[in-house]
TrEMBL record:
SUPFAM superfamilies assigned: 5' to 3' exonuclease, C-terminal subdomain, PIN domain-like
Coiled-coil annotated residue ranges, if any: none
Entry keyword annotation includes Cytoplasm: no
Ranges that cross the membrane: 159-180
Protein known as: XPG-I domain-containing protein
Record keyword Magnesium present: yes
């Protein structure tokens, strides 16, 4: 029995499933919407990913906070984000979560950075939306290196020159030699 449980746990870890997360199916959404309608609860369906829309709603005082396990909401400017909210009814820590307030994050931890610089530092820390930044070598950078790059160079365009100019310069020089000497 113990071996069977260990195999099942290994399979869960390998497939990215853990006991605290649930894969939301379209049928779940359908039943939730039907329930909300029957209870006359107002709701919004996001056209794509909801992060930007939820952050906008929070910035415009339509919601008090947004719960997520993804830090993108902070970058979208959501004023208050609840991370790791425990909704396990059988748990003694039901309702526990980490509350992050954007103003506190910026003022207490990065007073020397503007919000734009903070966002850029986070992008340099690793980003799913820019192909060269989603490479395994860039993902290793982390937030500390992203913050340092922006602090050292001030703007993202200067960071890009710092990071990529040496590679471009070598490539350019090699291509010049190739065309001149062949």
């Amino acid at each position: 029995m113990k071996e069977k449980l260990q195999r099942r746990n290994k399979k869960r870890k390998f497939s990215g499933i853990d006991e605290h997360k649930l894969k939301i199916q379209p049928s779940h959404v359908f039943y939730l919407i039907e329930y909300l309608k029957s209870a006359e609860v107002r709701y919004v369906v996001a056209p794509y990913e909801a992060d930007a829309q939820l952050a906008w709603m929070a910035r415009n005082n339509m919601v008090d906070a947004v719960q997520t396990d993804d830090s993108d909401l902070v970058l979208f400017g959501c004023p208050k984000v609840l991370f790791n909210l425990n909704l396990c009814v059988k748990s003694a820590s039901l309702g526990d979560c980490l509350i992050c307030e954007l103003d506190s994050i910026l003022n207490d931890n990065f007073p020397d950075l503007s919000r734009e610089q903070f966002v850029q530092a986070c992008i340099f820390a690793g980003c799913d939306y820019i192909q060269c930044l989603s490479s395994p070598s860039f993902r290793k950078n982390g937030i500390t290196k992203g913050i340092r790059l922006i602090r050292d160079h001030g703007t993202y365009d200067k960071v890009i020159i710092f990071l990529f100019f040496p590679v471009f310069k070598i490539s350019f020089s090699c291509n010049t030699l190739y065309f001149l000497h062949n």
